[in-house]
Amino acid sequence: MFHPGHGSIRSDAVGLLLSLVLTLASFGAVMSGLVPAGMRWPAVVVLAIVQLRVQLVWFLHLGRAQDQRENTVVFLCNAALIAIVVAGSPWVMHNANVNRMPMTVTPEQARMAG
Question: Cα separation of 35 and 16, whole Å?
Fold first, then answer.
């Protein structure tokens, strides 16, 4: 659903600028050597979370305002479905592995019999 208040040139430019700054900050944190080696991973994770927030607010227009609630609800439902699929797949594969029929014949015995 398009609303005239969404995606003005000014707000898009601000979002783009923030995204570029955060991307360059992440790159700089790893490549420049200014951030100690033990702090690089946490710095990149924090910058990635901030980057995600910028993307959600400035480009996907997710927020608490009345006209943004529909977008937010759809996003949260999709995120929940993706989380269920991602978490459920290893669970199903683990259970399939645990509950498989035990192999009573070794591959060598099968070759000898056939």
Answer: 25
CA torsion through residues 31, 33, 37, 43, sign:
negative
User: 55 and 4, same structural domain?
Assistant: yes
Domain extent for 91: 65-98
Predicted structure pTM score: 0.63
Is the domain of 72 the same as that of 40? no
Instruction: Compute the distance between CA of residue 35 and CA of residue 43 in angstroms, rounded to an integer.
Output: 8
Band of residue 2 on the pLDDT scale cut at 50, 70, 90: very low
pLDDT in tens, 7-45: 688 888 999 999 999 999 999 999 998 999 999 999 999
**Is 105 part of a structural domain of the chain?**
no
